[in-house]
């Protein structure tokens, strides 16, 4: 298949072999697999070399100092040799009909800029859960998403990095992954693509998103208020060609992420930043959650720490924080 698979690799020695095996088991194989070793310090690269020596897959390996997944993906895109770019994180996996499904979408919707499938979460303890995807037509197995912003607002992300294939030329029209953000750089890119190109989607559960690691919120992995997602989204709202219905859902989608930022700042005890995020929200859809989070931002830090600890124990109260 005329597709390059790009895998950023950073310290995934326990997962990379399962990831590569899921490609090897595809009923439609890719032309090339580009592994960008992002400065791994464990045995990840050794695992890849061992797998490469035993497979017929065309695996190309490039190494550089640790610069993060966005820059690694951009590097892979630029050195790829094919017209379509697939992404697969090193701890995720594909169902065996994933690329076959993508090929079918390409044949059905040749004018689309991005092709995606439904996916599952691999949760702690090994439990699988289907992503809660809403706002997408269920009349057919393969469809065009008619309002990406609505789908992104109502459920889990309709586009997830390990379950999308993008036409290579799209990157040269809308730009690449924004490399300065520590999270959400994929969501920001999907906004840019969705504004200019149709999105083809299949309900086939094509990928498994590994969420076995803790979701503990720390200063290093909060959803920051300075993300490019917000500036890009607000710029799109100014476009005269964007229909009012689309503007409504885009605005509420941005509000959803302002709330996530506020929640994270509350959980690390930064009430000032939480209030700053909440002040940016003018919402109909999230009004109750906004005021609940504003109330929590007024609580003293020692009480917030108690709530934080309750969150780590799976407390239902944490769900009120927007999880």
Task: Provide structural commentary.
The chain is an alpha/beta fold and 323 residues long. It has two domains: 3-210, Alpha-Beta Complex (Spore Coat Polysaccharide Biosynthesis Protein SpsA, Chain A), CATH 3.90.550.10; 228-319, no CATH class. The chain has 13 helices and ten strands. The protein has helices at 16-24, 44-52, 69-79, 98-108, 148-154, 168-174, 185-196, 228-237, 244-267, 271-279, 287-297, 301-312, 316-319, and strands spanning 3-9, 32-38, 59-64, 84-87, 93-94, 114-122, 128-130, 142-144, 164-167, 199-210. Strands 1, 2, 3, 4, 5, 6, 7, 8, 9 and 10 form a ten-stranded mixed sheet that branches. The longest helix has 24 residues, at 244-267. The two termini are 38 Å apart. The relative contact order is 0.11.
Kindly list the characteristics that best describe this protein.
globular; 10 strands; disordered C terminus; 13 helices; single chain; ten-stranded mixed β-sheet
């Amino acid at each position: 298949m005329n597709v390059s698979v790009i895998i950023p690799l950073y310290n995934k020695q326990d997962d990379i072999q399962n990831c590569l095996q899921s490609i090897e088991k595809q009923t439609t194989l890719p032309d090339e697999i580009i592994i960008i070793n992002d400065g791994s310090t464990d045995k990840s690269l050794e695992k890849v070399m061992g797998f490469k020596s035993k497979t017929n897959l065309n695996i190309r390996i490039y190494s550089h100092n640790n610069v993060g997944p966005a820059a690694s993906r951009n590097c892979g895109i630029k050195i790829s040799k094919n017209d379509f770019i697939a992404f697969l994180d090193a701890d995720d996996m594909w169902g065996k009909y994933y690329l076959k499904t993508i090929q079918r979408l390409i044949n059905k919707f040749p004018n689309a800029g991005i092709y995606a499938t439904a996916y599952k979460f691999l949760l702690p303890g090994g439990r699988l859960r289907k992503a809660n995807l809403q706002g997408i037509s269920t009349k057919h197995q393969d469809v065009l998403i008619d309002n990406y912003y609505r789908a992104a607002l109502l459920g889990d992300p309709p586009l997830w990095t390990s379950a999308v294939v993008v036409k290579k030329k799209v990157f040269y029209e809308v730009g690449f992954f924004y490399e300065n953000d520590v999270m959400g750089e994929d969501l920001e890119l999907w906004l840019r693509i969705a504004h200019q190109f149709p999105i083809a989607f299949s309900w086939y559960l094509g990928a498994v998103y590994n969420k076995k690691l803790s979701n503990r919120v720390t200063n290093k992995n909060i959803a920051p208020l300075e993300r490019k997602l917000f500036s890009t989204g607000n710029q799109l709202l100014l476009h005269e060609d964007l229909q009012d219905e689309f503007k409504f859902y885009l605005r509420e989608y941005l509000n959803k992420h302002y709330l996530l930022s506020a929640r994270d700042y509350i959980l690390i005890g930064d009430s000032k930043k939480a209030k700053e995020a909440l002040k940016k929200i003018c919402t109909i859809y999230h009004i109750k959650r906004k005021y609940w989070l504003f109330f929590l931002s007024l609580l003293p830090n020692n009480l917030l720490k108690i709530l934080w600890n309750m969150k780590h124990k799976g407390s239902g109260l944490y769900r009120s924080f927007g999880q």
